[in-house]
Structure formats: C-alpha cells, structure tokens
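Reminder to self: tokens first, then the designed residues, so the page reads top to bottom the way the pipeline ran.
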C-alpha cells in the first residue's frame, strides 16, 4: 500500500467523502431501477466492447477500459449517483425503440437513431466520427438487413451529431445527390462557428471537462454524464440540402411523416425536435436527456437560454403530449408509455424553469452568483428524479450561467472590479496569511475535517505565489482529488481529477493539434476566416503598421478590403480599395487549401493560381504579425513562459 500513498498516485477517499456518499445512498431513490430496464430494453446486438478502429488500426472508441463499472456498488472514490449513471452509459449496441425505429447507443458519446421507411432507412445524427458512423450503420445492417439510406438528418450543430456523416453517405451517393440531408435552419452558420474564434482556449479547457487524458478507473475518469467519453476519429461536415425553418413544418421522407419543432438557442444555437405520428415516437434531440444539461459547459461557450429551453419543452408537451408512446433522445436511453414520456418532459421543463426563475429571484434580492449556488435547492419532486440530476451540467454551476447571462461577470462590488491577477494576489494573500508554513498547517488540519473547498482556494493562492513549493502542490492535488471523488457531476469530477493530475505530473506533452480539415473550412464564411485571423494578430507587434489588401475570390464572387491600422485588423466586403498595398485574386477553395496547409501561398502564386497586383510582401508582413496558439497552457499553476 506504500505505493498507493506516494504523492504521485491517486489517494484513498477520506472519511468526509465516505460520509457524504453514505448520505447520498440514503437520500436518493436507488431502489428505482427502471432506467436500467429502459437502457437495455430492445437490445438486438452489438460488437465486442463497442470497439471501433480506424482504417490504420488505431482504436478510436472502446468501452473495454471501463470494465471496472461492472461492479454494482460504487467505490469510496466515486459518488454513488454518478457511478449509477456511469453504469447506465455502459449499455451499447443496436436497440429497438419501437418496431421500425432503432438506436445505436454506446458507440460514441451521442446516439444514432434509425427510422425505417418504405424503401430504406432514415439516419438521424451521425455520431462524432466517420469510423463510428460506419460501424453503427454496419451493426444496423447486420440485424435489419441491407436497407439503403434514404435520408440523413442532423438534429443540431454539435460535432457529435454530424461529424460522421461521410461514414453514412459515400462519394457516389453524394454525387448522385438523391439522398436529402436535412437540418435545422442556420445549421451551417453555427456548426463550426461556436468553436472557431475561441477554439484554442476551448479545446484546452475541454480536457478538464471531459477528462480524455485521465486514466480510466475508479479513481480516474468514469464517465462524462452525457455519455462515456469524447470519441476520436475522422470528422467531416456535409452541407444540408433541406433546411427545416418553422415549428409545424412537416416532411414525408421515404413514406414516413415527420412533424418538426424548432428549438434555436437551447442546447445548441440551431436545434430541432420531431415527432413521428406513424410510430408515435418523439425525439427531443438533446433538450430532454437523462441529466440536467449544461447552460454553460466548462470548455466555454455562449451562455444558453434556460428560459427558451423550458418554453420549447412546454410547447413540445402541448404539441405531442398524450400522443407519444416512446421518446428517444440523441443521448442516453428512451422512455416508454405516454404517462412517463409526459412526466419526463414536464419535469425537464420545470427543471430549467425553476433554475432560471429562482436564480433571477435571488439575483434580484441582491445575491451574487456564488451565494445563489449555495442557496438554491431543487424541489423534492425534481431532486428525486434521476434524469434531473446534474451529471453533465449541475444546478450549482448552471445558476452561475444564468447570472452571467443577465448580469455578466461583475457582481457590482468594486472590491471585485479590479482585483490583482492570480500571481500578484497570491503573493499578498500568502504574506497576509502568515506565510507558506502557516497556510499549509491550517490546510492540513482542515483537510482532516473535509473542508476541501476552502483549502483549494487558499492553496491555489500559495501555488500561484510559490509555484515551486512542492508541499503546496501535493496538498492542493490531494484536495482537488477529494473534491473529484465527492462530485456527482462528471464534468466536476473530471476537472478536479485532471487538475490533481497536472499538479502531480505537469501538463501532458501533446503533439501540436492538427489543423481544421479543408472540408470543414469550406463550411466557414469568408468573413469568419477574417475574424479568426483578427484574433491571431499580435497587437503589440503591429504597433505603427498600416497595411491595406484587396481580395477577390473568383469562385464565390466575393471581394474584400482587409485593413490593418491601430493594431486592429478589419475588413469591408463587397468593395476594393484604390489605395491598397496589394491585391490578390484566387478561389476560395484554394484559400481553404492554403489555410489547411495543403499548399503554400508562394507556391500557389508560382503556379499561377493566385493573381497578384502591387507589393505582395505586404501580405508576408501581415502574416508575420500573427500568433500561433499553443495546444497546452497552464491552468492550475502560473504560466512558465511569458507571452511575447
Ligand atoms: Zn450531443
């Protein structure tokens, strides 16, 4: 056991953690096991461990490392409620929802829904990766015969719902163009843009949210709440051919009638729900799943609208309540029976409404975000509903998102208006608190009492003041770890445990991130590319520079003037400047290739693919002012490299 207690290794759960888990076991309705029946109902078959390989043999998905979840009782190092959810998310394979409607679950964080029509099958959502989608469709074919795909539908804009489309539609089918690709209005505008401007920061933060670099195990990553984990593999965006624009719109596809409801600015900026009257099956995409979803994921995003979300669920109830005999979402498992479907929608509706209204009420009484999180408690009727529990989002951070949506980052107390940054503040806190030894001694005593939240705050100041204080880092790591063991939310657990890991072992050494594939780049508007370039401009280096460039994209018939002055890059579309330093005429397609680094700008000029006028060196000068963003940056420790 000596090895287990070395500072490098995950520790045991403390007594305080075990006491909370015991209380959870008593407080929640663990004897209600209907979810386990539902999650396995209609099982038709699967592949071993849901293991999926890429063409070159790389494993992109497998549930084999999660075999430890076969244990029914939660270990002391995991919250029992989260453990339960993690076990539910182990179900994998092809499942019948009703005869004619099927789902592949557990092959990805998201689900694929397959709806049989007169001559083939309609595929709703195509998982994260091409390999995953191919494997899911193969499994379906194995059990339901080789029905051709007659339509592909994307319920919303997140990658785990469209990334694998090319695994469903091959080049020949795409070229023939007779399989519609159906998506909610503004799909393409939002599919990539949510993660583009702040992409580098979001991807690093996502490592904390999902825990992909954590060891899997009872002391490590066990789930993401919404599903097991993020999938790897190849991603490709396909352009929809038919957009659903309004609630009440219908389509008859391969003989199956779909009734649609629009739900923009809910879980995703563009999202839609549908009902199949023939099958009496309702699909609320990702807005009515078996957890309290995120109003603001830790990776970072625009704050989602809890009020709108609740209204869509109410409208869905009005449109289809009492009719739907089964409801399946694009994560988790279905529920059956009109009463249970309606109850779940009603409870989810009220979950978002309660969180919204009570946050705003407390806000209007003058509480700040942390105080609201500390005060708010779900009503018993929602608290005891398993699907309302905070496995992915959580009431304690969702209320902060609602506060942020209305009031922003500032709590109006000017003590918080202009605080010293982390390192400088850390040094002063340590000095005021009587130095490192005093802080550590207090923290060790509080650790025994289980006061982990404050220890994390205090020791974080010490680590920022004294980044080489190994005792402080070790104790902070141990503290984060206990907080991880305590967390019911998988995203909290992953964040705490990954923070502990980085304090113990440093940041993982990862190769640079590959660039965006050309196909996905093609989905971006040219304006978005200029916006991305703008945020790469190193302001201080651009001091005193003035550059004006004309651009002409011959395939899209677009023109732009790009201007650098006052250390800011701006553009105007639909015009050219007579005073430009240089001008470039090329295709947008070639421009995508340059950005994807498949060709270089000078090479393309040499090859005559770019027509240049004026002084082309001005473009080189501008590009010399652009930053490259690192894949990794410090989060729980001060940064080692200054920003130049
Ligand atoms: Zn999703």
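Designed residues (644 positions):
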């Amino acid at each position: 056991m000596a090895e287990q207690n070395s500072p490098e290794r995950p520790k045991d759960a403390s007594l305080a953690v075990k006491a909370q888990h015991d209380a959870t076991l008593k407080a929640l309705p663990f004897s209600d096991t209907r979810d386990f029946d539902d999650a396995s109902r209609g099982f038709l078959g699967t592949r071993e461990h849901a293991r999926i390989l890429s063409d070159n043999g790389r494993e992109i998905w497998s549930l084999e490392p999660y075999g430890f979840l076969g244990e029914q009782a939660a270990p002391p190092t995991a919250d029992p409620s989260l453990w339960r959810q993690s076990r539910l998310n182990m179900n994998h394979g092809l499942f019948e929802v009703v005869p004619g409607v099927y789902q592949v679950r557990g092959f990805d964080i998201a689900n694929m829904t397959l709806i049989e029509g007169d001559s083939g099958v309609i595929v709703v959502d195509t998982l994260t990766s091409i390999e995953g989608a191919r494997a899911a469709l193969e499994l379906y074919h194995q059990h339901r015969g080789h029905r051709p795909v007659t339509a592909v539908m994307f319920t919303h804009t997140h990658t785990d719902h469209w990334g694998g489309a090319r695994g469903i539609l091959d080049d020949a089918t795409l070229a023939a163009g007779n399989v519609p690709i159906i998506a909610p209005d503004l799909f393409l505008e939002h599919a990539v843009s949510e993660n583009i401007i702040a992409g580098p920061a979001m991807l690093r933060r996502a490592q904390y949210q999902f825990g992909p670099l954590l060891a899997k195990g009872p002391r490590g990553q066990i789930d993401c709440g919404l599903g097991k984990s993020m999938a790897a593999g190849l991603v490709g965006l396909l352009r929809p051919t038919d957009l659903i624009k309004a609630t009440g719109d219908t389509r008859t596809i391969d003989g199956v009638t779909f009734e649609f409801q629009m739900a923009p600015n809910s879980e995703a900026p563009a999202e839609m729900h549908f009902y199949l009257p023939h099958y009496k099956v309702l699909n609320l995409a990702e807005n009515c799943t078996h957890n309290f979803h995120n109003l603001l994921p830790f990776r970072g995003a625009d704050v989602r609208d809890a009020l709108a979300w609740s209204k869509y669920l109410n409208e869905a109830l009005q449109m289809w309540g009492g009719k739907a005999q089964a409801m399946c979402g694009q994560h988790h498992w279905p529920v059956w029976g009109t009463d249970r479907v309606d109850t779940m929608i009603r409870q989810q509706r009220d979950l978002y409404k309660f969180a919204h209204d009570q946050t705003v009420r407390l806000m209007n009484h003058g509480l700040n975000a942390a105080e609201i999180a500390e005060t708010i408690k779900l009503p018993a009727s929602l608290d005891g509903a398993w699907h309302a529990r905070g496995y992915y989002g959580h009431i304690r951070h969702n209320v902060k998102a609602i506060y942020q949506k209305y009031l922003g980052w500032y709590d109006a107390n000017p003590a918080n208006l202009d605080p010293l940054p982390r390192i400088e503040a850390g040094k002063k806190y340590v000095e005021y608190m009587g130095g490192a030894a005093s802080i550590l001694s207090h923290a060790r005593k509080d650790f025994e009492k289980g006061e982990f939240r404050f220890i994390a705050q205090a020791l974080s100041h010490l680590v920022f003041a004294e980044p080489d204080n190994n005792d402080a880092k070790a104790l902070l790591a141990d503290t984060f770890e206990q907080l991880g063991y305590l967390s019911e939310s998988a995203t909290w657990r992953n964040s705490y445990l990954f923070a502990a890991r980085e304090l113990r072992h440093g940041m993982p050494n990862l190769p640079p991130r590959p660039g965006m594939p050309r196909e996905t780049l093609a989905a971006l508007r040219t304006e978005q590319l200029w916006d991305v370039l703008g945020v790469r401009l190193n302001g201080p280096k651009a001091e005193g520079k003035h550059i004006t460039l004309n651009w002409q994209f011959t395939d899209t018939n677009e023109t732009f003037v790009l201007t650098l002055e006052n250390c800011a890059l701006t553009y105007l579309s639909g015009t050219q400047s007579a005073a430009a330093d240089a001008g470039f005429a090329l295709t947008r397609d070639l421009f995508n290739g340059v950005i994807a680094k498949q060709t270089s700008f000078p090479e393309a000029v040499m090859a005559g693919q770019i027509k240049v006028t004026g002084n082309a060196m001005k473009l080189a000068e501008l590009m010399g002012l652009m930053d490259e963003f690192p894949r990794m940056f410090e989060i729980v420790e001060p940064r080692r490299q200054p920003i130049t």
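The pocket of zinc ion is lined by residues 110, 158, 160-161, 286, 331 (CB under 6 Å).
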